[in-house]
Design a protein that fits this description.
2 domains; 8 helices
Amino acid sequence: MRDEDQAVRNLALQTQEEIEKLQAVDDRNTARLKQIVATHGWPTISLVGEDAARAAWLLAQHADHDRAFQREVLALMAPAVDAGEAVAMDHAYLWDRINAPQRFGTQGRCVGPGEWAPLEIESPEGVDDRRAMVGLPPLQEYIALVSGLCPASD
C-alpha cells in the first residue's frame, strides 16, 4: 500500500486522470487502514515493526479526504508515541496536517520559485524547541530543504 501511495505521488498530478488515480489510491488505502485499525487497533512498532508502523502513518497522513479518521489516528498515536510504539515525528506531521495553526511547521506551500513557506504556526518563538522534542531539524533547515522541491519557475 505504501509503495502504491508513493508511486502515485511521483506523478506530475497535472491531468485529471492523474488526480483521479491519486484519489482512488488514497480511498483504497484509507479503507484498508480503517479495517486494520478496527480489527487490531493502531499498528504499533511491536505489533508490525517500525517500517510497517510508519507506512500506516503515511497512509493516514494522506487520508485528507477523511479528516475524522485522521483525528482518530492522531488520538490513537499519542499514547503509542508515549510508549515508544509510534514515531513522535510522524505524530507531529499528522498533528500539523489536521490542525491550524500548526505546532511544528511541517505543512506549507510553495510561495515562489524555489521558495517554500510554512502555514501559520502557533507560538513561532518555540517552534524549534517543539521540533527538537520530536526529532525534527530546526525550521530554517527544513525550509531550505523543502524549498528545493518547489519549481524553479512558474
